[in-house]
What we know:
By secondary structure, the chain is an alpha/beta fold. The chain is 47% helix and 13% strand.
Amino acid sequence: MSKKKLRSDIRLTGIPASPGVVHAKIHVLDREEIHVPALPIEDSEIGAEISRLEEALFQTREQIREIKEHLSQSIGEKDAAIFDAHMLVVEDSSLLEAVRKQVETKKLCVDYVFHHLMLSYAASMRQVDDPYLQERASDIMDVGKRVLKNLRGMAPSEKLHLEEPCILVAHDLTPSDTALFDRKMILGFATDLGNRVSHSAIMARSLNIPSVVGLKDASQSLDSGIPAILDGYEGILILNPSEKTGFEYGQIEQKRHAIEEGLTQLRLTEAISKDGRKVTVSANVELLDDLHLIQSAGAEGIGLYRTEFLFVNRTELPTEEEQITIYQKVMQAAHPHPVIFRTLDVGGDKMFDHLGLSEEQNPFLGWRGIRYSLGSPAIFESQLRAICRAGVGFKVRIMFPMISTYEELVQAKSTLQGVILDLEKEEIAHCSDIEIGAMIEVPSAALIVDRMVPEVDFLSIGTNDLIQYTLAVDRTNEKVAYLYQPTHPAVLQLIQNVVTKAHEGHVWVGVCGEMAGEIMFTPLLLGLGVDELSMGSIFIPRIKRVIQSLNHQEMKALAEEALKMNTGAEVLDLLEKVAHAHYPELLD
Ligand code: PEP
Ligand code: MG
């Protein structure tokens, strides 16, 4: 759709991913997917093809130089030196020579030849039994992508040339892309793919950037420059809004603003139901930038610190010392409340090149979470050492993600004990009175939870994954988003089983998935007996307000009723009635 022909108020409906409304022109990002067709060329075109590659290599060298310069100032010379390896690849004259030969003999476009050469270089490096050379394989792929983008005239995502603040429209965004966004320039974003619990959506909420996902093919049919309103509450992108629509949105925003103002008064209150049941309300933290929000939102600690985001957008692992500095910042921000450090949870939709993760057929069923940590003892131990060393004088909790078997929990605990013993032997200051927890996000763990309970101090239900694995529905796939049902009776039964068995063993239970921050589900989670709810900071005041408006005993009865229902939709209907009866002002 181009600007000229566009009628006003065209509404594209997707999935609301991060609340808020923004008005701005859209900027459409070219598709990031690298599909490189093998286009035949004529003899007469060979020279021009090679010049294109030379130009792209030149551009890439300039970009790498700029990034290196920028990073030297922000993260220091040492880490920025990683880009030297990238520079070596684009300065390698034998590479250009090899491409030239193949273009001449195969008579195929330079994009295709270059791409396949890079893939085969990287593949052969991965086969060499040398960790240094294996590492270089990801450098090659990284640089290769950058050169290809330049060949094809794409703007690298970390260096969007934006002239004014915009709503970014893209086919898909990775959590790494989202973490790099400049909030002053990217006011909101809309993507073709994704669901509300994909990690890019979670990042958007933590960065407080309104967003809509699952718009199917918006990025292919729209042109940059179209004025738009992005409504992250309803999941709508309105193109070319009329004056009337702009005015209506202005009014809605004013009303929402007034509600938010009212809610901030609640920040120092506790989430206690009318009949005296207290629920701890904590914050989920992804980036250090989130920390300033936790106190102002009234969080009673950090119920989920997703430590993997410390490993994002870098090409080298953080050292133990670096991790200590960051973990201390996190604990200082939460002090005197506790912090739950979730150990590295990579894999699935969090693929970070330098961690040695390779493409998998089914990444959500693959090498992720605790499986990765147990398979990478040096990385796991360094993280645990850093947490123990940073934790002196603070309330530290550690939990392990993606536990699917009892053995994994026992092995993870024994690694932690080993780390503490080593620190003792080395006479290095550390904390050892750490509470240990397991995430319950795989149905197998939820079903044998009675065996996990004696091993832990607490459990935290990761509903984002628990729903995905229970209903066999990819949490990032907009095509099956209708099946992603937090209220499905099977999910409720698993939560009930976890809470009941944990309480029998005197172990407390939190929920740290996105369900914890959604006001529609609070009555249910309160009724199911959950002790802590952990969520993006922006949701904390309203969840406190909801709990204060409910009666725990009544919600217990409600949960019993919900557990007997046949469908998620019936449960949702029931919950909507409760919401309208108890906190209608928050529903808008
Ligand atoms: C979850 O699965 O609910 C969870 C909190 O972990 P993540 O969203 O990071 O997978
Ligand atoms: Mg999870």
